[in-house]
Amino acid sequence: MSCKRQRQILTLVLSLGNSRVLLETVIRAFQDGASPESIVHRYSTLSLSDVYNTIGYYLRHQDAVETYLNQREQLAESVQQRLSSIQPDLSSIRTRLLSQQNQ
C-alpha cells in the first residue's frame, strides 16, 4: 500500500462514518481495554463496523497512527499554552464575583 493511499485511508478513518467522534477517542478507549461494543455503547453515533474498521486500521498501522496521535497531543498542548498566554488570570475575576455575591 502506498503512502498516499495510507493517508487517504487515515483521513477516512478519522471521520468515523457520520459521527464527530475523534479517532483518538476510539483508539484511546481501545488502548484502555474497552471492547468495540462498549465503545459503540459510549458513543451511540458510531456504528460497530466503523469501530472495528478503525481498530483494525490501527492494529495494521500502529506506527502511523501513534505518530498522528502524538502530533495531535502536541498540537493540543500548543493550543492550550497559546490560550493560557492570551487569556487573563480568571482567578481574580472569580474572587471578585464571589465577593460581590456575598455582599
What is the secondary structure topology, with strand pairs?
Layout: H1 3-15, H2 23-31, H3 36-42, H4 48-60, H5 62-86, H6 90-102
Helix pairs in contact: 2-4, 3-4
Number of separate helices = 6
Low-confidence stretches: 1-13
Mean pLDDT: 81
> What is the rounded distance between the termini?
68 Å
Q: Please tell me the total number of domains.
A: 1
β-strand amount: under 5%
Estimated helix fraction: over 70%
Number of strands: 0
Largest beta-sheet details:
none
Q: Globular, elongated, flat, extended or rod-shaped: what is the shape?
A: elongated
The radius of gyration computed from the alpha-carbon positions, rounded to a whole number of angstroms, is: 20 Å
Order of helices and strands: HHHHHH
Structural class: mainly alpha
Offer a quick outline of the entry:
With 103 residues, the protein is mainly α.
Description:
It contains 6 helices and no strands. The protein has 103 residues and is mostly helical. It is elongated, with a radius of gyration of 20 Å. Helix 2 packs across helix 4 and helix 3 packs across helix 4. The N terminus is likely disordered.
Structure keywords:
103 residues, mainly alpha, 6 helices, 0% strand, elongated, disordered N terminus
